[in-house]
């Protein structure tokens, strides 16, 4: 039998190997021209987020008005209407 060699790196297992692979992949990206496309994608995402925030700000007054309208509804009156419809349908 031959004793194990200490100059070789043991194989990593589980999460540690996944993390190491992730770092290696990231290093490859950062070394190449892929970083340019990565920064371009980031800029696109930032533009989309800015548009989303603008749309949310535009929607806020509409949502507030809808909430105010719903909160002012006379739900007791609606219940009476539905009770009346139910009693009519039961009579038929």
Distance between the termini: 95 Å
In total, how many domains does the architecture comprise?
Answer: 1
* N to C succession of SSEs: HHH
Overall shape: elongated
Structural class: mainly alpha
Descriptive account of the structure:
It is built from three helices and no strands. With 92 residues, the chain is mainly α. The protein has one domain. It starts with 14 loop residues before the first helix and ends with a helix.
What are the SSEs and their pairings?
Elements: H1 15-31, H2 34-71, H3 75-91
Explain briefly what this protein structure is.
With 92 residues, the chain is mainly α.
Which structural traits does this protein have?
92 residues; mainly alpha
């Amino acid at each position: 039998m031959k004793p194990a060699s200490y100059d070789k790196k043991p194989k990593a297992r589980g999460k540690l190997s996944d993390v190491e692979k992730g770092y290696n992949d990231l290093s490859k990206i950062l070394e190449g021209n892929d970083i340019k496309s990565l920064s371009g994608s980031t800029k696109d995402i930032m533009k989309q987020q800015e548009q989303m925030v603008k749309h949310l700000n535009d929607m806020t007054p509409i949502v507030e008005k809808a909430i105010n309208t719903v909160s002012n509804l006379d739900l007791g009156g609606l219940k009476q209407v539905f009770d009346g419809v139910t009693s009519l349908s039961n009579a038929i």
